[in-house]
From TrEMBL:
Residues 31-149 form the SnoaL-like domain. InterPro entries: NTF2-like_dom_sf, SnoaL-like. Keywords: Signal. It holds the Pfam family SnoaL_3. The lineage of its organism: Bacteria, Pseudomonadati, Pseudomonadota, Alphaproteobacteria, Hyphomicrobiales. Residues 1-25 form the signal peptide. It comes from Rhizobium aquaticum. This is Ketosteroid isomerase-like protein.
Length: 153
């Protein structure tokens, strides 16, 4: 009986290991690419590029590192990005850990650590590590940001 149980377990384990899920890996890669595109858009300091990686809905949210409140809705999120762009000469973002991605259907979340070099007009550069969380939705085959939060560590 013990031998039969071990054989059944080994057979079951072999079946699980032999099954591949290429779409899960592909979705993870696509979400990571969307996160990289978000970083590149922020780096560009161009609201049109930032707008291209976001869903434009009433329920999107943004909390940037120095924010004390949540921007809700695309108009508020866009205004917040434009305010940041107005005061910044440059922003470099480098992912240092993650992003760790989880995809469920057309929704995904990504959590990671990033390092930023922020150049505010008339001030020396600021170096900061921050925890970053993003929620994305897939619309017409493209992953778009619906919530972004980045807080200093």
């Amino acid at each position: 009986m013990a031998l039969r149980s071990r054989l059944a377990f080994c057979t079951f384990t072999a079946m699980l290991l032999s099954q591949s899920s290429p779409s899960i890996g592909a979705e993870d890669t696509d979400v990571k690419t969307a996160i990289e595109a978000n970083h590149a858009a922020i780096h560009s300091l161009n609201i049109a590029e930032i707008a291209n990686v976001w869903l434009h809905g009433a329920d999107v949210t943004l909390v940037n590192p120095n924010d004390t409140s949540v921007s809700v809705g695309w108009d508020a999120v866009s205004d917040r990005w434009e305010d940041m762009i107005e005061h910044v000469d440059g922003l470099d973002i480098k992912q240092t850990e993650g992003p760790f991605v989880s995809v469920t259907g057309d929704f995904a979340r990504a959590v990671g650590i990033a390092h930023a070099t922020l150049r505010i007009k008339s001030q020396p550069p600021i170096e900061v590590n921050f925890a970053e969380t993003d929620v994305l939705v897939k619309k017409n085959g493209k992953w778009l940001i619906v919530a972004h939060s980045a807080k200093p560590m």
